[in-house]
Design goal:
alpha/beta, single chain, about 20% strand, 9 helices, 8 strands, 8-stranded mixed β-barrel
Length: about 240
C-alpha cells in the first residue's frame, strides 16, 4: 500500500546548499490517522526510504539527510520502533526528529533510553518544536539529550519579525552551545531569511524554498533555490557566536 507524502528542503542559510529533506506524511497537511494507520505508515517507510535516498542529491560532497518525525508515544510503540530499527542500514542518512504533542512525564526516561539506543545504531537526532508552547517543552528536551539539530518552531520565530534578532540570537547561542546546528522553521520571505541569519541560525526551512520544490520524491538543487541578497549585510552576524 502506498501513502502520500511530501518533502520540505532544509537549507544552509549561508551557502544555499540543501542539506536535508523533511519527510512529512500527507499530500498537503498532516493526516489524522489512527494508531494502526500510523504503524502502517512507518512500515511503508521501511520500503520507501531505501528507494528515496538515492534521489537525494549530494551536498558539497555529503549525501543529503532525511528528517523523520517521531513523538515519544511512537518511539515507545513496538511496531513503529521495529520499523525504524529496520532502517538501521541507512541510519547515517536519517535524522530522527523528536516532536511532542502528548506525553506523560513518567515515560520520559524510557523515551530518552530509546533515543540513545537509536543514536547508538547511527541515527542522528533533532529536537523539534522549540518555542512551540505545546506538548513537552522543546528547550527542556534539548537539554535532556544531545542532538545534532535543534529546530525553532515557526510560530515562535515569526513573533520576532518586528522585534529584531537579539532575543533569537540568545536562543541560537544556547542551543548550539553543545554543537547542535539550529534550524529555523517557517522562513517565508527574504526578510525572514535575513532575520534567521542575523540571529545566528545555521539552517532554514519554509515557503521561501518549498515554493520552488517538487512535491514528492526528489530533492531540490541548491541552484534553484531563492536565496536572499545579503550584499551590504554582515552575513556572519551571530553565526560565529553560536
Amino acid at each position: 500500500m502506498s501513502y502520500p507524502y511530501r518533502l520540505e528542503p532544509i537549507v544552509d542559510l549561508l551557502t544555499g546548499d540543501v542539506v536535508g529533506q523533511e519527510l512529512l506524511a500527507g499530500r498537503d497537511c498532516c493526516p489524522t490517522w489512527s494508531e494502526a494507520e500510523w504503524r502502517e505508515w512507518y512500515a511503508f517507510l521501511v520500503e520507501e526510504i531505501p528507494r528515496l535516498l538515492p534521489d537525494l542529491h549530494p551536498c558539497s560532497g555529503q549525501p543529503e539527510l532525511l528528517f523523520l518525525n517521531l513523538d515519544g508515544h511512537q518511539l515507545l510503540d513496538g511496531h513503529i520502533s521495529g520499523s525504524i530499527r529496520s532502517l538501521r542500514d541507512h541510519a547515517s542518512r536519517i535524522v530522527i526528529e523528536w516532536t511532542e504533542q502528548r506525553f506523560r512525564d513518567e515515560q520520559l526516561v524510557d523515551v530518552l533510553a530509546k533515543l540513545n539506543f537509536l543514536k547508538g545504531l547511527g541515527f542522528r537526532l533533532a529536537i523539534d518544536d522549540i518555542g512551540a508552547g505545546v506538548g513537552i517543552d522543546g528547550l527542556g528536551r534539548a537539554g535532556a539529550v544531545k542532538a545534532s539539530f535543534c529546530k525553532i518552531d515557526g510560530t515562535y520565530f515569526q513573533k520576532f519579525r518586528n522585534k529584531g534578532p537579539e532575543p533569537l540570537r540568545d536562543l541560537c547561542r544556547h542551543l548550539s552551545h553543545g554543537g547542535s546546528r539550529v534550524i529555523v522553521e517557517w522562513v517565508e520571505t527574504e526578510a525572514d531569511y535575513r532575520l534567521a541569519l542575523a540571529a545566528g541560525a545555521h539552517l532554514g526551512q519554509g515557503y521561501l524554498w518549498t515554493r520552488t520544490a517538487p512535491r514528492k520524491g526528489t530533492a531540490v538543487l541548491a541552484a534553484s533555490l531563492p536565496i536572499a541578497d545579503i550584499t551590504g549585510m554582515d552575513a556572519t552576524a551571530g553565526q560565529g557566536e553560536c
